[in-house]
Structures are given as structure tokens and as C-alpha cells.
Amino acid sequence: MRSSGPYSRTKRANLPSLSRILTCLLLPLLTISPGALLYLLSQPSTSNTSRSFSGDLRDAEFSWNSLPLPFDKPAPTSLRIAVFSRKWPVLSAPGGMERHALTLHSFLSRRGHRIHVFTAAAPVSEKYDISSEYLKIHALKGRPNQWQCEEAWELYEAENRIEPFDVVHSESVAMHHRFASRVPNLAVSWHGIASEALQSGIYQDLIRSPDMDPALNRSLSMAVFKVINEIRFFKNYEHHIATSDSVGEILRDIYQVPERRVHVILNGVDEEKFGLDDELGNGFRSEIGIPEDAKIVMGIAGRLVRDKGHPLVYAAFKKLITTHSNVYLIIAGRGPWEQRYNGLGPNVITLGALPPSRLKAFYNAIDIFVHPTLRPQGLDQTLIESMLCGTPIMATRLPSIKGSLLVNKEFGFMFPPNVEALGAVMEAAVAEGRRRLEERGRKCREYARGRLTATKMAMAHERLFLCIKNESYCMYPLGFD
Question: What region holds the Glycosyl transferase family domain (predicted)?
Fold first, then answer.
């Protein structure tokens, strides 16, 4: 039985079959327009939730984050977990997927689970971020950041012989599929898959040229075959963790993964590090020189490269400030577009790459967070960080964002990835003003704290890992719930 709630939606619509989709992509590829391809790739996403669910959790199609799993009680048993991750965060500059792995497994280790991480060697003069005595790093002996799955597998087997692992967790394809078929207690988290990369390629071409480039033709052909290849080898992974609702649908409906082997667990962010703090935000605004009479301040964070949508932001904001001289854009990040932004004048402030400790102040200083990515891969942590800080979002209309984050129009704005559409929602945000955006931000924070925290993410993973170890834990609710 599934109950409805303020953020629930109806059961997902019937999607076209795998054969139909691949036929549409492969046969007319030489003549079909990018817009038509995007239509075929668009997946209606849902965010089904239920606080009254009872039964086998392997039958659940909603995200496990929505379950009220008790984090204030000890785990019913301690697990020994092996983690395969190509990289692990260093103290100076943790990356996105690595931060997810660190947040998740640090939390699990603090709950008494013994975590063994198999990862590449740390960069010279850097140290890995290890926050718990129950978390042990098994670094490879090769060059820094050079991942060798064969060597990691040997280290894993040696450790597994000492004491068998209850669960093995791979961050994306860190464990190659030829090894995955040997591990029945394996769960893999997908932070991006080939079908999403195909959609990304189309978006990027659309902002370059109105006509289909022959080079794109070849690139899309290769991308389609990558999708087919993934469909063939994904069956080697026993359990699939989808980090967004839309990826869960793709795995079930296109990749043909049996439904009971697909588990939706949304990314989460440490709620102790990201939260509402007006005083901190106001101080940051003063520090970087934002005038007190600024109408609204927009913010953007991440790598300043083409596939993150910066050509769109540059063009749309350049036009916006011709009619709104008191609107500002704060940019946190490094990349080729930094110098171009500097050329837009005093309304744009580039900060370079901010350390994680400064991001909370950044999110609290802005009135709306802009996320124009052309890469529909995974569920970006910056969006969740912004929402936890009570800042509404302005994001590309992608299935993962629409289905798992912007599930309520009150949370912000979505736009198709083109300059005109982005410019229109920028104008709409300016017209609303700070007070209305603050209302949106409060609703964002309420939603994020109920589903997108590190606690919710980690408790969902813990329950799945318990289920993998012993099927009796797959039932919900149990006595300790």
C-alpha cells in the first residue's frame, strides 16, 4: 500500500520498450535531428514515497531515503564492508563522487560497521581523509590516482580470506564487471550511466550548431553502442543502487535489470555542515563586496567548463544585466570560462575554487543557486547543499533533477538547456525578489532535511546492506524500526 504526500506523484508512466528505443536511435541516426533524439531519451520521472509501506523492501520503487529508519538506535548487527572506489578524498580538495563515498562510509563506520576501502594511491604530499577508527584504507602501490582494478581485487581477496566481507560496495564501475560476476553480495552505486551521457552529448551539440555535425553523428553512434554494452554487462552486478529516481527507471525499463535488484537511494549531504545561517551569509556578502541594495544575488559553483552549461549562463546573464544593473552573480570554481566571466564587469564576482569549509557561507550568501549543467549524470551534490542551506534552485530540466529534487514547483525554476529559456527564468527570479525566493528556500530546506541528508542516505544504505547479508532484514518494518 502506498500513501500520497505533498511531494508524491502517481506511478510512473509506461515507457517504450528497449527494442523500440534502440531501433529509433540506431536506424535513423544519420538523419534524425538532435531535438528528436532528446525526445526519445526523455524519461518521465517519479518520486514515489510512502511512510506507510510494509513488505519486502526489494519490491519498493520509491527511494529508500523516504523511509523513517531510526538513526538513534544502534545497528542490529555490525557489518564488514569492502568498498571499491577509484579515488578517495584528500584533505585539500575532495571531488564529488569521492565526497559521496566519504560521507556515506564515514557515517556507517561511526555506527560501528567496519569499512575497508580499496582505492588508488594518494597524490604526492597529500593525505587521505579518514575520520573514523573503523575505516581502513587499502591504497594501491602504483602511481597516484592511478586505478588498477586487478591490483585492488588481489588486495580484496587477501583481506576476504582473513575474514569474509558481509557486503561489497562499488562506486560506479570501480569493480570491473568481469570480477563483479564472482561477488554475489555486491552492490554498485551508479553515479552516471551511458544513456545519460548520450543525452549530454546531444545537449552540448545543440548549443554549438543548429545542424547535425558529422562528427556528432559518429559520436552519438558510439554512445548508443556504449548503452548496448552496458545493458549486456550490467547483469553481472547483483544489486544496483540508483542515486536518482530517473536512473532507477532507466535500469528497470531500458537496461532490463530485474526490479528486485534495483534500489533507489538518493544522494545525501552532511546536514551538520550545510544549513541555514543568515549571519554567515550576510558576512560573506560583505566580505566579497556585494552592495546592500543588490536586488538579488545568483550563485553558481563547480568546474567552469562547457558541459556544465557555462556558455548558457554567460550569454543569459550578459543580457540580463543590460536591464537590471543591481543583480549580481557569484561564481565559485575554476575553469576556462573564468576569464570570460571576468569580462562581464562588476556584476560578476569570481571567487576561484572554494574549500568545502567555505561553501556553507557561499550558499547562504546567494538568493538562488544556478545549475545549468548539460550532463544529466547522477544527482549533483551542489544542488542538495544549496537546498539544505535554504536556497532555492534554478536548474536544467533533466529527469534526475525533475524526479528527485525539483518535485515541487515551489522549490525553484527549471529550464530547457538554451539561452532563451535560462534568460526567461532569470527574469522571473528577479521579478519575484528576495522575499519570495526566501519562501521558496524554506520549502527547499524542509524537503531536503526530510530526504536528502547524509543520515537518510546512510541509514538507507545500512538497511540495504543488512538485507544483502541476511534476507530477514529485507522486510519492513521490523521490531527495531
Answer: 288-444
